Amino acid sequence: MWRLNPKSTLHFRHWGNEWVVFDVGSGHTHEMDTISAVTLMHCESGWVHLNEISQGVAKDLDLPVSMVSSERLLPFLNQFASLGLLENLAE
Question: The CATH number of the domain where 22 resides is what?
Fold first, then answer.
């Protein structure tokens, strides 16, 4: 399960497929693509399972679930955790 770090408050901006996310908690700005940004957005409301994130991203972006499978999203989630944006509760 994943969630936004409680110390983070995120502000998203995008231009086409390019996204920037400003984290008020750390003062850092992060650049990412659409799938990464939408993946991060799905963690903002509280603890969420990886498969729920995958299904939500697929629905929001009108993509087949295979394009945003759990295995494809896990590297994004791990990177966000290493940046301090997300917390992971072992499933």
Answer: 3.90.930
With a cut of 90, say whether residue 90 has pLDDT above it: no
Q: How confident is the model over 54-84, as pLDDT tens digits?
A: 999 999 999 998 889 989 999 999 999 999 9
Q: How far apart are CA 26 and CA 58, in angstroms?
A: 29
58: tokens are 């697929």
Report the alpha-carbon distance of residue 42 to residue 40 in Å, rounded. Answer: 5
Structural domain boundaries, residue 43: 2-88
Q: What is the pTM of this model?
A: 0.91
Query: In Å, what is the CA distance from 68 to each residue of 29, 60, 76?
Result: 24, 11, 11
